[in-house]
User: Fold this.
Amino acid sequence: MITITPRVTARAARPRRLISTLLWAAQILMAAFFLFVAAPGKLIGDHQAVQEFGAIGAGQWFRYLVGIIELAGAIGLLVPGLAGLAAAWLAADMAGATITNATVLRNTTFADNVWMTLILCALFVLLAYGRRQQIKGLAAAIRRKRANRPREATAAPPATDT
Assistant:
């Protein structure tokens, strides 16, 4: 059987290449911000981060957890196969930060961060949307891997002579 695949012309490929280039530029900028500004402050115990997480009231372990989440997400943004998933991961992180800034920290000096975290959340949502095919491909690969895994046989109860 012969399958016919459509040819992609250079003119049709240009917008995709431009979008991919813009996505990579945004991913690199966002990864740099989280690698060099956001995550290290939480992980090394920057005074402002310690105060902010103290005001949240969840304990300083939560600061370390958020720092690790942001560090892992930033690294994921730079890995071609994980960039979409990392963007979705960081969008969820920023959604939580936005909610926390708007509710728990509303009467503190950290309440103004709600706008920054909201903008970052929107940017990560756009990045995840732009990399949605990667996310779908990753999910399909996981499903295939699970489908090919041998299942454990359930042992039948021993037969009894009656």
The chain is about 75% helix and 0% strand. The mean pLDDT is 89. Residues 52 and 110 are 7 Å apart (CA to CA). The two ends are 59 Å apart (CA to CA).
